[in-house]
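#struct-help
A.M.: can someone run this one for me? Single chain, 290 residues.
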Amino acid sequence: MQRIVLFGAGYSARAYVRHARTAAIAGTTRTAGKHEMLRAHGITPLHFDGRKVTDELAGWLAEATAIVVSVAPDEEGDPVLRAAGRLIEHEMPALQWIGYLSTLGVYGDHGGAWIDERAETRPVSARSRWRLAAEQAWQALGERRAVPVALLRIAGIYGPGRNAFVRLSQGSARRIVKPGQVFNRIHVEDIGRAIALAALRKLAGPINLADGAPAPAEDVMAFAARLGGFGLPPEIPFESAAMSPMERSFYLENKRATPARLLAEGFTFLYPDYASALTQMWRDGSWQAE
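D.P.: on it. Structure tokens below:
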């Protein structure tokens, strides 16, 4: 029996569960109030605060055949490795695969050029530098264990409940314009399917999870506004836009990532670009809720 532990049973990890070929999945959360929601998704909830491994979590890890990690690192490193690294390395005899959910941010800025998984990693923001360090730490653990580690570098995530329609309907949408700037993105359902493929084939190394159709953020917002009959938010020049440091940092990186490895594995996107995805989401109403 395949047994999988999700460190951080968030939006993307729950999408993976819908496509995982396994009989038993447990997922961690810091919040007891999310336990019922996880059970509704077929996930056994486990508490993990990023500091201590509970007996229940240790019991699951002792029999797990795979782990998927979507807990973000911080300036002190990866919380999962800090709390459970020794256990994962020495007390998981059935472990066959590790999936680490990372970000395209580890590539940094490539001046809008097309890149694939062979591109140089030169992260700009502190968060992306932490991610790259975490990738390297997980790879090192995998080498010591002789277990494949997939570095799943994810683009901007959208899907039910998290998309331009939601922001337009809430009146929070903005159309920030920086000439020449593009962003990669991927629908959450394709994230789930891609993780499932990587787990099934026990893939290792970097894998870009991006739809291969990068576009300016303002184009996506304008398309959604026209399609849904919303008022078009006015253009705001990047230089004068009020943004948090985190939001502004995204505009410091400009690249066009291609999902070369996924395509080489025969992966077909359900949502190959934002236009087809938003059109379907608007028609079937799936934009409103997860």
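A.M.: thanks! The longest strand covers residues 97-103.
D.P.: also worth noting: Residues 223 and 275 are 7 Å apart (CA to CA).
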